[in-house]
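Meet the record:
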Amino acid sequence: MIPIKNESAWQGTSHCMSCGLRKLGLFADLTEEDFAHFHAPIDDFHYATGRKIYAERGAAAGIFMVRSGLVKLMRVTPDGRERVTRIVRPGDIAGLEALATGSYDSDAVALTDTALCRIPLEVVHRLAQHSPRLHTRLMQKWQQALKSTDDWLADVNFGPARQRVRQFILKMRDDADPTVTILFSREEMGAMMDLKHETVSREVGLLVKEGALLPLDRSGRSYRLVNPQLHA
């Protein structure tokens, strides 16, 4: 198994049977008998904001399930611009393409302090052979990932700037409290929406001025949606 370069991120072996996110993740439908086929550790990793988890075209050690935090998947265009293709949330999986290709098709970077578990490819392949439930779950997760990527690109990379920013704000709502949205630096948001950061700052500022957003901190990262639909 190819080791991760950032060994300082390793936190020990994960306990999948008792994991609180198990019902949301890849192993939701597995039984105790299925877990008997595990012959490699599923390890926990923690990454600080901005740290790279894996690199595009990098040889894959495994797939990653996000336990907490947010991860952005991105690619660099031929002219050197970063384009975000998807945001991975708790319970979602990053790197599924590695099951077919053995490598990753994007960079994965922690958008916030993030905890993940890394599932070795050999574990997933072995379980898929023994468990039709896991095979079905894999296909569902893969389909969800493709749809999420398509939806993300369609919603935040096309249309007028105001429409893109509003769609982005709605997509970044907190799962625990949908009236709160968590944003990032305007440079990061611009890269995600293919907009200049000055444009992003202006549109967010207008929404605050119009009363659609209420700032919850001084850093410009957390807002309450006063108008959850952000109607024009």
Summary: The domain at 161-225 is CATH 1.10.10.10 (Arc Repressor Mutant, subunit A).
